[in-house]
Amino acid sequence: MIKKQFVLMVSFTGFFAMMSGCQTTNEKVSNSIASELNKRSITLDLRETELDKRALALKIEQENFLEGAVNWRSILCDPKRANSHVLEIQSTLKSNGFNPGKVDGFIGKSTMRAVKKFQKAYGLPVDSYINIETLKALGISAVPEN
């Protein structure tokens, strides 16, 4: 009877030791899985934040586009304006610190670059045209004097 109890006791002890070893291994595996899931969760959170930023930027861009689509402005329609009028625009830009390039009476890339910089600096609509608001800000009449 003592022999059976001893064997049984050794068997239970071995079983518990084996189970506790499994438990330790299971805890390690569980901790490893939990750590990996935590990393993935953080990665997903970062991606979600990035997508939220992109969605907001697209929404703002869409609003700006729609606003621009219905925002009418008067512009100078004739790009080949009277040379004296263009000379006045170029001279005024230059005297205000916006280099229009050669002051030659022709609206070229340099003149338009200076116009856009002026528009931006004065909070005017920035576009590919010399609009009436820009002329007013420059103190120039929209109608050339001939």
Tell me roughly what share of residues is in helical segments. Answer: 55-70%
Question: How many structural domains are formed by the residues?
Answer: 2
Number of helices: 4
Residues in β-strands, percent: under 5%
Main β-sheet: number of strands, strand sense, barrel status? Answer: none
The strand count comes to 0
Query: Could you tell me the radius of gyration in angstroms?
Result: 38 Å
Give the termini separation.
Answer: 129 Å
- Assign the structural class, choosing from mainly alpha, mainly beta, alpha/beta, alpha+beta, or little secondary structure: mainly alpha
User: From N to C, what is the helix and strand string?
Assistant: HHHH
Mean pLDDT: 76
Uncertain runs: 1-13
What global shape is seen? rod-shaped
